[in-house]
Design goal:
By secondary structure, this protein is mainly alpha-helical. The protein starts with 20 loop residues before the first helix and ends with a helix. It is elongated, with a radius of gyration of 22 Å. The longest helix is centred in the middle third of the chain and has 29 residues. Helix 1 crosses helix 3 and helix 3 packs antiparallel against helix 4. The relative contact order is 0.10. It is built from 5 helices and no strands.
Amino acid sequence: MTTIADPRSPRTSVRRSGPNLEKWGWIYMRVSGVVLVVLIFGHLFINLMVGEGIHGLDFAFIAGKFATPFWQWWDVAMLWLALIHGANGMRTIVNDYVLNERTRKVLVWALWLSAGFLIVLGTLVVFTFDPCLGVENSTTEWLIEMCAAQ
């Protein structure tokens, strides 16, 4: 009779009391994946199919979208979910393939720090976006007129 070897495990850990973070990470990946599909396809549909389609994408279109709270929150939700989803997936890969405990911890910390930095930066960009910033140096007439009207 042939015996199958036990699966390789990079670390053996004893189950601690408290919340099972791996289970919640697994659930987050499934839920955020479904929500991201809706957010991304909605984003693509509005940007590429409605109105003039891809030919209508310009600075004014983006400025108009970022002028409404609905689209600000849509894009921020997409940003947050995508970055956390990606960082959690990379964390899983690091946990599976990096055997050295110290290297694994450094890489996981680097993942979460970079994801956190990008989340903060992206959120600031979305909520502080001002199309009239630096307009005095612009050569675009419609932008100068729009900002002068404010």
